[in-house]
Specification:
Organism: Hyaloscypha variabilis (strain UAMH 11265 / GT02V1 / F) (Meliniomyces variabilis)
Structural class: mainly alpha
Pfam family, one: DUF6594
Order of helices and strands: HHHHHHH
Largest sheet: none
Strand content: under 5%
Protein name: DUF6594 domain-containing protein
Number of helices: 7
Keywords: Membrane, Transmembrane, Transmembrane helix
Shape: flat
Radius of gyration: 27 Å
Helix content: 55-70%
Length: 207
């Protein structure tokens, strides 16, 4: 009976451990590529595994079993693009002249761009977009006299606004739809209540 009592407890502990492991994030493809390159290069890690485990971090078959202990979570698509793509090309063209590889053993031959710096750049771009899109659409809608061109301009800026939300936030589709509908409604109200300068001049001439 005592042995039987221990089985449910062992099963419960195994289930809890399995659940906690499933909560861990998967490593990013770029991080795995960098790890494999770092291990192979003699000027970096210079770690070469022999035997059946030499493809532990490079095999697509085992990739689903890998986890990341310190992932970059809650990243916007813009942040991911800057950290994965823009930073790479920046270092290839300009950054290599300003930042030198680290001398520490675990950073040997590598250049580190801090997450906080990339995050600040993302915030700056997001803030600029949040300011420019409403102001630019208002100015253009005020200066355009043709109603058809006004409507097309409104449609274009609404699409740009929606794409900006998708790129710079982690908002769900419901929130993006609500924000885009509100932005479009504001433009419709502006179109219906304002006259372009040419129309105002025409009214004054008629008087």
């Amino acid at each position: 009976m005592l042995a039987i009592r221990e089985k449910p407890e062992e099963y419960e502990n195994a289930l809890i451990r399995h659940t906690n492991l499933n909560k861990l994030s998967r490593p990013k493809n770029q991080d795995l590529s960098f790890l494999n390159e770092w291990m192979v290069r003699t000027g970096m890690g210079n770690v070469r595994l022999h035997g059946s485990d030499n493809r532990t971090w490079s095999s697509d078959e085992w990739r689903a079993d890998l986890v990341s202990l310190n992932p970059w979570v809650d990243e916007s698509p813009l942040f991911s693009w800057i950290s994965d793509t823009a930073t790479y090309w920046y270092h290839r063209t300009v950054g290599y002249r300003r930042k030198k590889p680290g001398c520490e053993e675990h950073h040997a031959g590598t250049v580190v761009y801090e997450r906080s710096t990339i995050l600040r750049l993302t915030w700056v771009i997001t803030t600029i977009l949040a300011c420019v899109l409403p102001i630019a659409s208002t100015i253009l809608l005020y200066t355009i006299a043709s109603m058809a061109k006004r409507l097309w301009t409104m449609a274009i800026f609404t699409v740009l606004f929606s794409l900006a939300l998708i790129a710079t936030t982690r908002a769900g589709m419901t929130d993006i739809f609500a924000a885009t509908a509100t932005y479009a409604a504001v433009q419709v109200v502006f179109i219906g209540t304002s006259n372009p300068p040419s129309a105002n001049c025409t009214n004054l001439a008629a008087r």
